[in-house]
Write a structure and sequence with these properties.
Elements lengths: L10 E5 L8 E5 L2 E7 L5 E5 L7 E4 L2 E4 L20 E4 L3 E3 L3 H9 L4 H4 L16 E5 L4 E11 L10 E11 L2 E7 L7 E12 L2 E10 L6 H19 L7 E2 L12 H12 L6 E2 L4
Parallel strand pairs: 15-16
Antiparallel strand pairs: 1-6, 2-3, 3-4, 5-6, 7-14, 8-14, 9-10, 10-11, 11-12, 12-13, 13-14
Length: about 280
């Protein structure tokens, strides 16, 4: 099993709101684990050999690691901002590399073709120039100045708008998206994708949102985001190869793929290769 540097990272392993004393059996990087509350209400995560694993509770999710995380879980400052609604979207199992799931989240060009009449529509298919960088001071991949026309940018949107995006990759299997907030143009809606690697070609995806939306029922917010992700899942499960190629010669990028290129370089630099294909086969 190829774990390398990724073994010491934090990963989502369940929603705290759904946890009880009976626990949840799941897996992390190929190893069976159990997540449960003890008699005192403390969260315990145990490996198959009975070892207690590190635990962190943040953004409504329980996080754990098979190794020894060298730093705290990445911050999302908006999670502490008054007035936001926090939406636990649930979980979707996807038969793909956890790294593929993150890269798909970063892809702008697929909006008109996969999320037709929601996040994109023809003839508005051109990806405008945007900026990508690896911010060395925080060791994160960022894409900024991303703009795209969207028929319904959010559940709260009443019509088509040109939406501005910022993408952030703070961990190998997590991404945070900031986008135009229709009810409050001066703020950003936050949509995060927390990916739990069950195996190199299988993952559980936990979307989470921090929104300014006092009107839309919670059920509608969850359904809207689930609809988006289930459209993505059909694409992800048919990608070949299933593992994410890190060799630059294995797939031909376009100008719209700058974020993906930076993400793959960043993964390779840190030896984050669980779920990656390193050479052509």
């Amino acid at each position: 099993m190829r774990q390398n540097a990724m073994i010491d990272e934090w990963y989502p392993v369940g929603l705290f709101s759904q946890l009880d004393i009976d626990g949840r059996k799941t897996a992390l990087m190929g190893e069976p684990i159990e997540v449960a509350l003890d008699a005192h209400g403390n969260i315990n995560v145990k490996s198959s050999d009975g070892r207690f694993l590190p635990v962190c509770l943040r953004y409504g999710h329980i996080w754990s690691s098979l190794g020894k995380p060298r730093k705290d879980l990445f911050p999302i400052p908006e999670a502490d901002q008054p007035g936001r609604r926090f939406v636990d979207v649930g979980v979707a199992r996807v038969r793909c590399s956890p790294l593929r799931a993150v890269e798909n989240f970063l892809d702008i060009a697929h909006f008109p073709f996969v999320h037709t009449d929601i996040l994109g529509a023809e003839p508005h298919t051109e990806v405008q120039d945007y900026k990508v960088e690896i911010r060395e001071e925080v060791d994160e991949v960022w894409a900024t100045q991303v703009k795209f026309y969207q028929p319904q940018a959010a559940k709260s949107a009443s019509g088509g708008i040109t939406t501005e995006y910022m993408y952030r990759v703070p961990a190998p299997t997590c991404s945070v998206l900031y986008k135009t907030c229709p009810p409050r143009p001066g703020e950003w809606d936050v949509i995060a994708l927390f990916v739990q690697p069950l195996a190199e070609d299988l993952c559980d995806v936990w979307p989470w949102m921090a929104l300014f939306d006092d009107v839309t029922p919670m059920t509608d917010l969850i359904h809207f985001q689930q609809t988006i992700f289930l459209q993505d899942r059909s694409i992800l499960e048919n990608q070949i190869p299933r593992l994410l190629p890190l060799d630059p010669g294995m797939e031909i990028p376009t100008r719209a793929d700058l974020t993906s290129i930076a993400y793959r370089r960043w993964l390779k630099r840190h030896h984050y290769t669980y779920g990656a294909q390193l050479v052509a086969q």
